[in-house]
Structures are given as C-alpha cells and as structure tokens.
Amino acid sequence: MIRPIFHATVFFGICLIIVGLLYVYKLTASLQLARIFARRLNMSRQDYPWLPPNFTDQLMTEREAHFNMTNIWKMRNITRKYFNPKSHIIYFSDFHVFMQKCDPHTFTLRNSHPRRPRPCNVVHTPIKQYRTCAVVGNGGILLHSSCGAEIDAHEFVIRSNLPPVHDYRRDVGSRTDLTTMNVIRLDQIANALETFNSTLRKDMLARLGQSPGMIFSYSFSFIGSKARYRMQIVDTAIKNNHLSTITAFPSRSFLKSKRLYTELVGKDLNFASTGLNTFALASTFCERISIYGFYPMPTYQNKRVPYHYYDIRPHSGRHDFDEEYAMLRQMDADGVIKHVVGKLWFAFLSATLTLSRGEDRPNFVFFVADDLGIGDVGCFGNDTIRTPNIDSIATKGAKLTQHLAATAVCTPSRAAFLTGRYPIRSGT
C-alpha cells in the first residue's frame, strides 16, 4: 500500500515541476528570443539589454537605401587589383607550405611554367564573403557614441591593432572577427606574452581570447622579417592556452598599394593608415561596409576628442588623416560606404518601434529614463532599485502600445504603462 502512494506522490511532484517550468517559460518567452539573438552575435545581455530580437534585420533594412551598389562594384573592381584575402590573410599554419611551394613576390607556384604561371593554390584563407561589415577604427570620436550595438549587428567586425573593447563595449561593440596588426603593435603583443609580469601576460591573453574565432593578422612585410618570429610567439601562446584565435599573415605588405588611392579617388597618400588599408582590403570581401572611429580633428561639436578612445595620446602627424577623412566622406556621399561620425544616442532604435509606414497611427517616440548606471540590472519594482519616473507616469494612467524596456517589468502599474494590459509582466 505504501509503494503505490509513494509512486503517486513522486508522479504528482514531477507534474508540478513540469507545470512550473512551462509557466516560467511562458512568462519569459519574450526574453528567450533576445537571449538567442545575443548569443548568435556573441553579445551579453548586460551589454545590450534593450535590444529587440529583430534588431539586426531592421537596422540593415533601414541602412540598405544608403548604399549604391553600382558605385560599390566600381570600387571593388579597383581594390581587387591591389588586395585579395587569399594572398593578404593566409593561415599562419600554411607558412611553411607557402615558402616551399610558392613565390612570395608573385604569389605563383614555383613549379609552374614562367610563361603560364599558376596562382599559389596550396594555401588557404579564413576569410569568406560577407554581406555587411563594420570597419572600426580606434578614434576617440567613439567615446560616448552608443555605437556598440550597431557595430555588433554587422555580419563581420574588423578592428586594427587589438584595442581594448570590453570596458568600452557600449560605444565600440564587443565583437572582433578580424584584427589587423602593424609592426609596432605586434612587437608589443609578443613582448607582453613573453614578459615575467604575470598580470600583463594574463591581460594580453584575455584580450586575444575575448572574441572566439577572431582572426589575428599581420599587415606589413612578413617574409624575411622579424615579424614571422613575433607571430610565432603569439601563435604558440594561443595554442598553449587553448584559445580559438586564428593567426594569419600576408604574402606582401599592405603598403604596396599606394597607387590604389590615386586610382580610387585621384589622390596620393604617402603613408596610408592601417585602418584605411584595412578598409580597402575589406572592400574585396564585404558588400556593404560601415566605418566607425575614423575622425581626425581634435574637437567635435566644441568638445575635445582624444586620439584613441582608450588613452590620452596626442594626435599623430604620421598619417595624412585629413585627406583620409575627406576621402571617406566623399565615399559616404557616393553611397560606397556608410561613414558614422558622432553620437547615435537612441536614434537607431526608431526602426525597432514598429511604426510601420502606411499604417494610420501617431508617430510619437517617447523615452522614459531611470538611469542608475551599473546598478540598473535588476528587476523593476524590487526593494533596492527605484524607478520614480516610470512610477509617476504609470500612476497617472499613461499607456504605451509600443515599448522597449531595459529589464523585466515586474509590477502591475509599470506593466500597464508599457503594454496597456493589467497585470502582465513585460520584458525586452
């Protein structure tokens, strides 16, 4: 008699657990899609808690009209004369095969006929073709720009010289799919990995591993230079620490492309920046490119702009940044790129409010802010986090039919304010 009662009790308990799990799943359904979306983009919900699930599609649809594909293909036909990911971003693991079977100067097979040389097809590149790419410079113009979510929404994110991103992710994003390196930065990274200073070494390893699958590529002359040995140090450290970062090298320097810019825009650039050359390379495998962090002036809207977003270095005079900036602005005007300068604030969220064109509804965009900084990660309505602005408006009977909330809304009054339904829990 006791055994059947025990089995029935266990069965009843399991049923209660299942019902509870189904209730919780239904309660948080709106959050699940956002979490899946965040994982797909390698983003943290703490970084962008307000992103709706369809943020990427809506953002890129809004931006689609800016690009002129005819002009983009004209540019690509020129840049492909000078850049090719198959020869400029090669797996470092293919280096010995490359040196054994290929001519580094011509990128052809050594055993092919001189009159009919065959391309070096024994090496490989991790680069594919991408529809949308973000080329992110390190300019101080990115500080307080709120560009992070927009940058991470691109299919492929490219940076230069492995900058810090975690502490600045709201402004610069958190993803890095490719980072290109100059000789000075490669030396710094290799030295940090060999140092006896464990803190510095751990910090560099953390930066190398911050974006799983990131491609770490050198940009200058590699064959016969010390860069090969510096890259070997980096590659060994990556393997010894089980990081998924991919090391790569070029068959020739990015700097052997000076004539590109003369052909592209009719201007001579004596020493193009790593960022500009990275953009030119990206144009060979990206359809639509958005540029961030490229701004040469020391001030913007009467406010000081540092050289880098992560330090207080003075502005450099080595590169002709004014000419590069003018070039980018012209390409933006021609629909070849989207050059983003300044603060986005929440303007880019207008597309997420689903104010569909052609529908007869008022076009009001209304934001309520209870900004509590880093503490603003809990559930509205708990004992420690106060939201006086939302409470005040909610008690007056205001309702919104379209909404974005930073975190879950747990009180009936706030749920009614955001959704018009009472009581219900609302989320992102």
Explain this structure to me?
The strands form three sheets. This protein has an eight-stranded mixed sheet, with helices on both faces. It is 38% helix and 10% strand. 35% of the residues are buried. The longest helix has 26 residues, at 2-27. By secondary structure, it is α/β, with parallel strands linked by helices. The chain has three domains: 1-40; 69-339, Alpha-Beta Complex (sialyltransferase cstii, chain A), CATH 3.90.1480; 356-428, no CATH class. The two termini are 51 Å apart. It is built from 16 helices and twelve strands. It is a single-pass type II membrane protein. The chain crosses the membrane at residues 6-25. This is ST8SIA2 protein. It holds the Pfam family Glyco_transf_29. It is found in: Golgi apparatus membrane.
Task: Give a short summary of the structure.
The protein is built from 16 helices and twelve strands. It has 428 residues and is α/β, with parallel strands linked by helices. It folds into three domains: 1-40; 69-339, sialyltransferase cstii, chain A (Alpha-Beta Complex), CATH 3.90.1480; 356-428, no CATH class.
